[in-house]
Amino acid sequence: MIAITRAVSRSLGECELSYLGRVSIDVDRAAGQHEAYCRALASLGCEVIALAAEHELPDAVFVEDISIVLDGLAVVTRPGAPSRRPEVASVVRELGRHRTLATIEPPGTVDGGDVLTIDRTIYVGASARTNADGIAQLRRIAGTAGYTVQAVPIRGCLHLKSAVTEVADGTVLINPEWVDRIAFAPFGQIEIDRDEPHAANALRIGDRVVYPASFPKTLRRLESAGIRPTLVDMSELQKAEGAVTCCSLVFDGTPM
Known about the structure:
alpha/beta; L-arginine/glycine Amidinotransferase, Chain A; about 20% helix; about 25% strand
């Protein structure tokens, strides 16, 4: 597996925010947490490709939003926040070494955080960052690679993967306040603890899961289901509406 990451920008405190109030971010601590996160990815067998920080782009650490990596194909997104579109070029340079590239074109917008791929189905959050035109373009592009695309309305959160992620074969971790259960009816569902509304974001790597250390009640539910996550401290990055999926693009590194 390959994991593309990018170091934390000194301007992280000026990040885009939609659902959280702005509070002070300790950028040095955030950088240390990100380094520990990268070490966790490496410990799970990933080859970590670390891109240089782009200090003039506050949200650049959240590389997930820049692409959707499929088998043999990477879809370069057009982020919904205009301030984030300059982040694309450097990620594309690296992705082009591993995948054939396709691109979401204006007026479409898609954030990678709205995209959850399970087997050959791509669930896409219809959010403030991902519009109908972007979803339609993704459906056409992904269809050429044998994927189907299903739009999923969300509410009260930034991205689909704020509300639901895959944690094991046939099982998702879900916040039903932010996404309807019925959209994921084919799967077993572990509901987050109501006291931890941001706890549905987990990063699955093979048969392992990376998970924030800040949600102990939901962690107990995962453990009761037989899932033993690798824990990471994301507390400073969470202040920027970041999560464990946001900080990497993880994909099969088998040569094209």
